[in-house]
Write a structure and sequence with these properties.
The chain has 1108 residues and is mostly helical. Among the domains are: 202 residues, Leucine-rich Repeat Variant, CATH 1.25.10.10; 258 residues, Leucine-rich Repeat Variant, CATH 1.25.10.10. Helices cover 72% and strands 1% of the residues. The protein has 45 helices and 6 strands. The strands form 3 sheets. The chain has a two-stranded antiparallel sheet. The protein is elongated and about 195 Å long. The N and C termini lie far apart (130 Å).
């Protein structure tokens, strides 16, 4: 210092102040010895107190560079940090204080001898502070150097200066400093580790630093939380005495609130790490055990003194609990249940209903308790079962025993009965808590409304609420409990209205909470009848009574009373046609309200007048043509008395003056009071939100057509709900469509499989039919050969007759030959008997063939029926597929129309569901029919196989007939030889007989040869025989005549040789049966061709069947 003073004061050196600072800065950068750098730093430190601007200009970079060089030297580093801190915080004082500090060469210090924390005073940031901050944050190296000092050195002052310097950076350049913290790996860990430091000053500064560091920085909040900060903070709180502690407790709670507020990740970590139990213990240590105790034995607690610090600590703890249940938080339900399970909910309830609790804490506890159960039905029901002590928080604490009442009833009593102007915060908090109690719980609203109405009916003839004295043994009969009723407060006129004008206001608030978004409570309240006809009172509905009371209290001295009635009626009538009809039932009362609105022009009642205009507009907007006072008539009354233009201007003025800049949150506003000490709170929050959301519709109400019923408003919430339902229905529809398409695909595959099976079956049937046709050709060939044999036999018979005539003529001449001839006749008769046997066997064979033909006919008819059913089934399936595709298109169009109408959407959905059920039932019917047809096809196949077996057996019978015919031909040959031997005695006879005998072998041999030839070329012979049959139908007759002649020939020869064939049997029956057989065969051929053509029309390949 002497060296520096010599440099400055020496007249011979003539060194200026700037040069001296430059010399020190140069020495600081270029000196190799630590002692030289340390002396230069001390010199700059002395200059920094009086010549801050010059030191910042010429030596700032040198100081920062020296910090990186001497970061391991605690003495040098301490001097550097203190110098930087002096330069940084110089702007915190005013000009007068600055001059005083310059004269005294002092710097503001805290009582413990340390510099005041930049975050604990109002730091006045100037250009030099910004200069220092910008230079320090230009690179992460300097901040890393400060953090390294916190980690490597144990010097108390060194850590303290480093923390304060970082705090100054966070004040001047918060975003840049936080960004550097995220780039330095160990920065957050180093700061959090200071919470366990042995020095309380360092620990306190670290907490303040962390509060500033995590504010509005989501990433740093998570980094700090994952350093086990929660447990460390609760350890500090326990060491500091909990919520009874000093300002360090408030800082710890502020740090927790900064880490948890609006940070779902940290909130989950807080709950999962078990810190909620520590929070519960923290509250319990202050307020005592939970509510599970006997209130009768409770004495007023006087041991806890609520000083300002404890009040701040408790309020911050309540804010901390409230941060877990913010609106629109997806984890709110889980957080609420966790707080209830841990006992925090009951502890906060005890705080709210404790005797010796401060008013601000009680109010905040009621709000937090309400938020902890808002929208949670489980906690709401638990709250309804809790009994709390009844007392008046506005009265001094007494030692008398307190009776217990239900918690919701206590909220109503506090809101309606407390009359002190200092209890308004408690009344408002109780109303907010009740609003949360019934939020989104229709069952609770209905139950509470029914209880209030029942109580009102029981007390209908009383002007005030009943005084119920507790009758339990432990109760003090001199301490009555005043229970109030919402309906009584709104309907019956209160003489103390001037002393307690907010009673009607809070009653309207509670009633609005009960009817909000609950159609059932509205209907229950509308069915309530007020007045007793037996006592000469007019009987009217609840809404009519409210309207009449509004007219009665319009000239009230306190504007809050008519405002409360108007708010309740406006909220009730909005979008409720039934309530509006009930309101318009007494049109004289409505006209009185219009008269009050039009005539009252005083400034003191301007608010009620403006709200009265909105009430009339809402009543018209939701009136209907079928209302007691029709919409058109009501419109004419309003136009005549108010006027469209005047109405719109009044509503606009009301909105601009009271609603436009008001956010509607009463709890967050600072309440101002009027001359009587009452707060200037006029609007119920739900009513205020209604007016702000629907201002345009209310203002334009009178411009709407009076001949049309009003349309219902589609809110964004309703639209969002409809959109969610639409998406759900669309997903369900898509799932069902995909399922239906999959079923249709499966059915198509099943139909194709059945078609292929039918094709295979038809192909097999065609093969069997072709086999039957071949057998039929064989039978036809046999019949043709039989016909030829008949012709040959007829020729033989004619020749035999001529030979017999010649033999008879020769008998007279040759007697010797007669005996031989008799022998020949006897042999011929035996031959005829054998032939008759063969013919009988042939008839049996023909009968078997006819039986097989009939069976084949039946089989063909069954096949035809099966084909017809298959074709009908195929056509029906195709038509169903086409209709199903058309239905799918219709369903898609119906899905598009769901955006416009929820009702149409539900109807279309039901229709689609029914149609799908019918189609599924029809498809199941088709499947059963297909199975049935397949079963019948298998049965027919078995029947065809049996027919084929029968035809095969018929073929074997035909083969046996061939053999018998051959044997017959041999017998005929032998007979011819005997005839030729018998006629050798007569030359003429021998010549005639020789001619016949020569011709006989040819005749007998032709049938067998022709029969064999028929088997070689069946198809050609089939056509030839059909042509012969058509050309000459007498061939069967010849065969029949021959058979008859064979049977009667012996008799004719023996009795009357000259007799002809006049006694032959009728052969027409056999001819008709043969004709029927041929016609049936032709029909079968035609049907086969017809079915093949039909199969080709359906694109079914029959080429393989034709080849068969």
């Amino acid at each position: 210092m002497e060296y520096i003073s010599a440099i400055v004061k020496s007249p011979s050196a003539e060194v200026t102040l700037e040069e001296a600072i430059l010399i020190l800065s140069d020495r600081l950068l270029n000196s190799k010895l630590p002692s030289d750098r340390r002396s230069a730093i001390l010199g700059l430190k002395n200059f920094s107190r009086q010549y801050r601007e010059i030191v910042v200009e010429y030596a700032l970079r040198s100081l920062l560079k020296a910090a990186t060089i001497d970061k391991d030297d605690p003495i040098t580093m301490k001097a550097i940090l203190e110098t930087l801190l002096i330069l940084f915080m110089k702007g915190t004082t005013t000009n007068d204080e600055k001059n005083k500090n310059i004269e005294n060469h002092t710097f503001p210090r805290s009582p413990n001898g340390k510099y005041v924390s930049p975050l604990s005073v109002l730091l006045e940031v100037d250009q030099f502070s910004l200069w220092i901050a910008d230079e320090t944050t230009s690179t992460p190296e300097y901040l890393a150097c400060f953090i390294q000092c916190l980690q490597n050195h144990s010097n108390f002052q060194l850590k303290h200066y480093a923390i304060q310097l970082i705090e100054g950076l966070l004040i001047t350049r918060p975003l840049k400093t936080k960004d550097l913290f995220t780039k330095i790996t160990t920065s957050v860990s180093a700061i959090v580790s200071l919470l366990s430091d042995e020095h309380d000053q360092v620990k306190g500064e670290a907490i303040i630093l962390l509060i500033a560091l995590v504010r509005d920085s989501y990433d740093i909040q998570k980094l700090v939380a994952f350093e086990n900060t929660f447990d460390t903070v609760f350890t500090i709180l326990k060491e500091e005495g909990g919520l009874r502690g000093s300002v360090i407790v408030h800082d710890c709670l502020s740090l927790l609130h900064s880490l948890l507020a609006f940070n779902a990740s940290n909130q989950r970590l807080f709950l999962e790490s078990g810190c909620i139990s520590k929070l519960s213990q923290l509250i319990e240590d202050l307020v005592g055990p939970s509510l599970d105790h006997t209130y009768e034995n409770e004495a007023p607690s006087t041991e806890l003194y609520w000083n300002p610090q404890r009040i701040k600590n408790m309020l911050l703890t309540l804010d901390l609990c409230n941060s877990f249940v913010e609106k629109d938080n997806q984890d709110s339900n889980y957080n609420q249940l966790t707080f209830f399970d841990s006992g925090v909910f009951l502890l906060l309830l005890r705080v709210a209903f404790a005797n010796n609790m401060e008013g601000s804490i009680r109010s905040q506890a009621l709000i937090v308790t309400g938020n902890l159960m808002a929208g949670n039905k489980v906690l709401q029901y638990e709250f309804s079962k809790i009994d709390v002590p009844w007392f008046d928080p506005s009265f001094p604490i007494t030692s008398s025993q307190k009776p217990s009442i239900a918690a919701p009833v206590a909220l109503v009593n506090w809101a309606l009965s407390l009359n002190s102007v200092h209890s308004f915060d408690i009344r408002l908090s109780a109303s907010t808590c009740f609003q949360c109690f019934v939020e989104d719980n229709h069952d609770l609203k209905i139950g509470f409304m029914e209880d209030q109405i029942s109580s009102f009916i029981a007390e209908e003839h009383q002007q005030k609420a009943d005084i119920i004295t507790q009758t339990s043994p432990a109760a003090n009969k001199g301490d009555p409990v005043y229970l109030t009723n919402l309906v009584s407060a709104l309907v019956q006129r209160d003489e103390d209205m001037k002393l307690n004008p907010y009673k009607i206001w809070f009653a309207a608030y509670f009633m609005i909470c009960l009817i909000n978004d609950c159609h059932e409570t509205r209907r229950i309240a509308q069915r309530l009848k007020v007045g007793n006809e037996a006592y000469g009172e007019d009987v009217m509905s609840f809404i009519e009574a409210l309207a009449q009371n509004l007219v009665t209290v319009w000239e009230s001295t306190d504007i809050r009373v008519p405002v409360a009635y108007i708010s309740l009626l406006s909220f009730w009538l909005f979008e409720d046609g039934d309530a509006t009809d009930n309101f318009l039932k007494d049109i004289q009362t409505v006209k009185s309200i219009i008269s009050c609105v039009v005539k009252d022009s005083s400034d003191s009642n301007a608010l009620a007048t403006g709200m009265g205009f909105t009430l009339i507009g809402i009543a018209y907007e939701f009136s209907r043509c079928a209302s007691p006072c029709p919409r058109k008539t009501f419109h004419e009354i309003i136009i005549k008395t108010i006027g469209i233009g005047n109405y719109a201007l009044k509503v606009k003025k009301l909105y601009q003056q009271y609603f436009e800049e008001n956010n509607g949150d009463i709890m967050s506003q600072s309440l101002t009071r009027d001359d009587f000490g009452l707060p200037k709170v006029y609007f119920i929050p739900l009513y205020q939100r209604l007016i702000k959301d629907n201002y345009y519709r209310i203002k334009q109400a009178l411009l709407h057509d009076p001949n049309l019923d009003p349309p219902m408003r589609v809110t964004f919430e309703l639209f969002e709900d409809l959109e969610i339902k639409y998406r759900d229905l669309k997903n369900l529809q898509q799932a069902r469509e995909s399922e239906y398409c999959e079923k249709v695909t499966n059915l198509k595959n099943e139909v194709l499989r059945i078609q292929r099976s039918c094709q295979n079956t038809e192909r097999e049937l065609e093969m069997k039919i072709s086999e039957v046709e071949k057998l039929r050709n064989l039978v036809q060939q046999y019949e043709n050969s039989t016909t030829i044999m008949k012709d040959d036999l007829e020729n033989l018979d004619s020749k035999y007759a001529s030979a017999n005539k010649i033999a008879l003529d020769a008998t007279s001449k040759v007697g010797a030959l007669q005996k031989e001839l008799e022998l020949m006749k006897r042999s011929k008769s035996e031959l005829l008997l054998k032939y008759e046997d063969v013919s009988a066997k042939k008839v049996i064979a023909e009968n078997g063939i006819n039986k097989m033909n009939r069976e084949l006919k039946e089989l063909t008819r069954c096949l035809e029926d099966e084909r017809t059913q298959l074709q009908e089934l195929e056509l029906k399936t195709k038509s169903d597929l086409i209709s199903n595709q058309r239905k799918i298109k219709e369903l898609e169009e119906e899905v598009q129309q769901l955006r416009y109408s929820h009702t149409v959407m539900n109807e279309n959905y039901d229709k689609i569901r029914k149609e799908l059920a019918e189609k599924m039932q029809f498809i199941e019917t088709l499947q059963s029919d297909l199975k049935k047809s397949e079963f019948e096809r298998n049965a027919k196949s078995e029947y065809a196989k049996n027919a084929v077996e029968k035809l095969k057996s018929a073929a074997s019978v035909i083969q046996n007939l061939k053999m018998q015919i051959k044997m017959k031909d041999e017998v005929l040959k032998k007979a011819a030889e005997k005839l030729s031997a018998a006629d050798e005695n007569s030359e003429d006879s021998l010549n005639a007989i020789g001619f016949s005998l020569k011709a006989t072998p040819t005749i007998s041999q032709n049938p067998s040869e022709q029969f064999n030839n028929i088997g070689n070329d069946g198809e050609e012979l089939h056509s030839k025989l059909r042509a012969d049959y058509i050309r000459d139908s007498r061939s069967p007759l010849l065969h029949d005549e021959y058979m008859s002649a064979e049977q009667t020939a012996p008799a004719r020869c023996l009795t009357s040789p000259d007799s002809g064939y006049l006694n032959m049997p009728d052969i027409r029956t056999l001819q008709s049966e043969f004709d029927e057989l041929v016609l049936l065969w032709e029909q079968e051929v035609k049907k086969t061709k017809y079915y093949r053509e039909r199969l080709k029309q359906h694109n079914i390949d029959v080429s393989s069947d034709e080849e068969c």
